[in-house]
Write a structure and sequence with these properties.
Blueprint (H helix, E strand, L loop, with lengths): L2 E2 L2 H11 L7 E4 L2 H4 L8 E7 L8 E6 L7 E6 L2 E4 L5 H9 L4 E6 L8 E5 L4 E7 L2 E4 L19 E7 L8 E6 L6 E5 L4 E3 L25 E4 L8 E4 L2 E6 L2 E4 L12 E7 L8 E6 L3 E8 L2 E4 L9 E2 L7 E3 L8 E4 L9 E8 L2 E6 L16 E3 L8 E6 L3 E9 L5 E8 L11 E6 L2 E6 L8 E2 L4 E6 L6 E5 L5 E5 L6 E5 L6 E4 L8 E2 L11 E7 L3 E9 L4 E10 L2 E7 L12 E9 L2 E9 L2
Parallel strand pairs: 3-34, 31-38
Antiparallel strand pairs: 1-23, 2-30, 3-4, 4-5, 5-6, 7-8, 8-9, 9-10, 11-12, 12-13, 13-14, 15-16, 16-17, 17-18, 19-20, 20-21, 21-22, 24-25, 25-26, 26-27, 28-29, 29-30, 31-35, 32-33, 32-36, 36-37, 38-39, 39-44, 40-41, 41-44, 42-43, 42-45, 45-46
Length: 599
Amino acid sequence: MKKLILLSFFITCFVANVFPQDIPFFEVADNEALGLTPVLLDRWGCSSADIDRNGWPDIYNNKWRGRLESQIYMNDGGYFTDIYGNSPELSAAEMEGNATRTPVLVDFDNDGDRDLMFGTDYNLFMFRNDDNVFVNVTEDLGIESGSPGFVSIYGYEMSAWIDWDLDGDLDALVAQTNNPDYILYRNDGDQFVDIAGEVGLEGMNELGDRGDRGFDTGRIQWIDWDGDGDPDLSAGWKLFRNDDGYLNEVSESVGFTPFKEIRFCDWFDYDLDGDFDFFLQGYSNHDELWRNEGGTFVDATQDVGLDLFTDDGQATLNIGDLDNDGDEDLFFSINDWEDIEALLINYEEDGVRSLIEVASYAGFGIVGDRKGAAILDYDMDGLLDIFCPSLQYGSIVYHNLGPEAQNNWIGLDLWGTESNKDGVGSLVECYAGGNKYVRYKVTPSTWKVQDNPYIHFGIGQATSIDSVVIHWSRGIKQVLINPEINQYHKVEESAGTSVQVKNNSTPQTLNLAQNYPNPFNPETKITYELPENSNVLLEVYNLAGQKVATLVNAQQHAGRQEVIWNGKDFSGIDMPSGVYLYRLHVNDHILTKKMMLVR
């Protein structure tokens, strides 16, 4: 049963000081209208990813125990269709293994769609996505499974993906129940090779004393917690620092000693100081927040009032900016028959931050079976919604209507070119309204859950974004100057110049906008609109008529396009101050405008 010490006083004071219009409101969506047919079977956990990369987030609705099947809900404009039946090899694998554990949708082969890895009580599987049919390639890749004991379950708890060797594809760290050794599968293209022993992970998985219920250090996630640009490892209550490709366990030396009975855990910058802090949900009604202070950790549980919140039914941990005010909030599905969900709003007043439980004010009221929710913006309106699997209800979709005072936002769909296609391991910084917001792209989010596939920032009442800086996993730094707000942007990895395709309606005519900012230094954004798919040539000339740069020379889709010029010529040399012409050549049409570079 959820308990809040000083409940009445605490909530009443909060609502009196934080106006109701600042709390997001959720309504339960009509499943039938969304195409989500009721499946009244045992469920725990789900994964949200844009499986076919069509710009809409899809859902893997994870079955739990028994000879059951999951669902794969493909999203087409906010309407879902289950395509699980197209993949008989996937169904056969799930039927073998009782519990399906932490399915992860990830583009391991960099072909532009998401593939699937999941574990069962006894086996680990990898499926390649062939036009939305999942084909079992476990054996082909050299992935081995085994059950070393007849009594204890050696289940595959979860995998966490990163480009460990920086070769442009994703590698998989796997944790297994009752196995003291992690498995780090290096992706060599046609084979997965275990290199865990080479990087310091042999014997490092602490087994605990809860037997087949799982273990604490199996809750694995990659995160650059020390801010040095390479991925470190978070493993339950253990913390590993990446020292030139070797993972050293440094928990005690950096003050990181959280509770050792962990159910869910995740990382986010709760205090907006630019580094990542650690949140855990523990067994025995125990939650903790550890503040990162420049690479050392301090217990901030009491500082944010988290010690006032306890419950015994937490069945998920989801982190996202649910009210779009700029800081990230926490959602818990609560799996019991008495309590509603929990929504902890991240609230700052007079320099003091608190995590305040407001679920009853935000429209939540369902009790009963709810296990393993995922955050996703299913209707792509910039407000993060929540999908919650349920035996009792089939599934529950909490549609986010936002706070009464609507806030602004931006979304980014990362497409790696030199780095892995999913953009996993990228650090993204957003500068708006005098604040800096950070995200680190991970897959998955936590045990049993894979959250929002897009990078999402709320920016509160700020009306523009100064810049978004993307640090791709292989070292390329990309800057988007003044990107438009309240839109999702497709961002392809590039150095200096970046092109974004936005989800706008198709324009009727060819348009070339004035660059912004103008005058500019060091970068400016050029926007144009294509009425149809076209061959596009965009070039920069000086006033003497000499071509100094080609920004685009490619076939592009209809719609709004953007490119950033960094003020350099073909050779990467800075151009001098002056007036330049940018010329758009599309089919038989040529449009030209002037811009001014001021050094």
